[in-house]
Amino acid sequence: MDLLVVIFLTLLLIPVTYFIQIEPMRMILGVILVLFSPGYALVSTLFPRVDRFGTIERIALSVGLSLITVAILGLILNFTPFGIKQIPFTTTLIVWTISFSTYALVTRTRIGTEDRAGLSFGSVRTRALIPSGIISWILTISVLIAATIFIATLISKIQSPPANAPLTEFYASHQIDGEIEYPTELTLGIGQDYPLTIVNRENRITEYSIEITLDNQGLGAITIASDLPENIVLENNETWEGIITVVPLKEGPKQNLSFALYKSPVSTIYRSLNLIITVREE
After folding, report:
1. So where are the chain's domains?
2. Distance (Å, rounded) from C-alpha 47 to C-alpha 123?
3. DSSP E strands: which ranges in the chain?
4. How do strand 239-248 and strand 192-201 relate by DSSP bridges?
5. Considering the entire predicted model, what is its pTM?
6. In terms of pLDDT, which residue wins out, 179 or 113?
7. Regarding the domain with residue range 167-280, which homologous superfamily does it belong to in the CATH classification?
8. What pLDDT is recorded for position 127?
9. Checking phi first, is residue 83 left (phi over 0); if not, alpha (psi -120 to 50) or beta?
10. Beta strands 185-187 and 179-181: pairing type?
11. What is the Cβ-side half-sphere exposure of residue 89, based on CA atoms within 13 angstroms?
């Protein structure tokens, strides 16, 4: 019954997260999914028999293993194209919880009814006042401490990436009276300067190219009045700076002026800058 409840609450999170966003219910189910369900599914899989741990130990171990599981899955997702975002992260936890819970249910069917593990709250108060095994309590506390240390370390590592991690800085700015501004009010047919900067920190020689569009259109919607290099080759830690004069040819509000940076030999956009501009007649 306990695993069926876990599976039900986990499945209930699917419509609440993806379709009908009921915030209070989503928060409650989310807390259960993060702090209890993944660990309890894992504990039920590893220790299917009742003689291993009591109810208190199982709950404590479930919380500790849930924190560790969430941290590890988050770390793995951080190095995938999906990243640590709500939908991929929630989906991963749901799949993890349902998979281990189902496996634990199948395992329990092969064990006698009296030997099957589960949550029994009838003796929780007595066991809380009189611990049955000091070793179990030490193990439980150790798991919680280890989980706390692990998650704190993981968060620190994610927030402070390695100093030599490859990256490229790409930005456009325009200084007026010492303040950095991004011009968003343009005049039809009149050029506007945008100073672009590329800083190569890829730890190797890198070749770049820049494409500028207005509402995903090139010729016909925009003209580049200045010389834009076809290819920009930079040594590691080398900086390129150039002033690009953009001449809008299409009048209208809320147009997307996009500066796309490509890194050879990849043909997809590597970095992009997007400005919402308004173009008016002179």
Report:
1. 2-159, 167-280
2. 19
3. 167-172, 174-176, 179-181, 185-187, 192-201, 206-214, 222-224, 232-234, 239-248, 252-263, 269-280
4. antiparallel
5. 0.47
6. 113
7. Immunoglobulins (2.60.40.10)
8. 46
9. left
10. unpaired
11. 15
* Close Cβ partners of 27 (under 8 Å, ≥ 6 residues apart): none
User: Token pair of 86, please?
Assistant: 């709500």
* 58, 59, 70 from 34: Cα distances, Å: 16, 14, 7
Two tokens, residue 167 = 């990256």
> Peptide bond preceding 265: is omega within 30 degrees of 0, i.e. cis?
yes
CB 265 within 8 A of CB 219: no
CA distance 237 to 174: 23
Encode pLDDT of 105-151 as tens digits: 888 888 777 767 666 655 444 444 444 455 556 656 666 666 666 66
Tokens for 113, please give them.
């009814």
> In the sheet where 192-201 sits, what is the strand order?
167-172, 192-201, 239-248, 222-224
Q: Where are the beta strands (DSSP E) in 18-146?
A: none
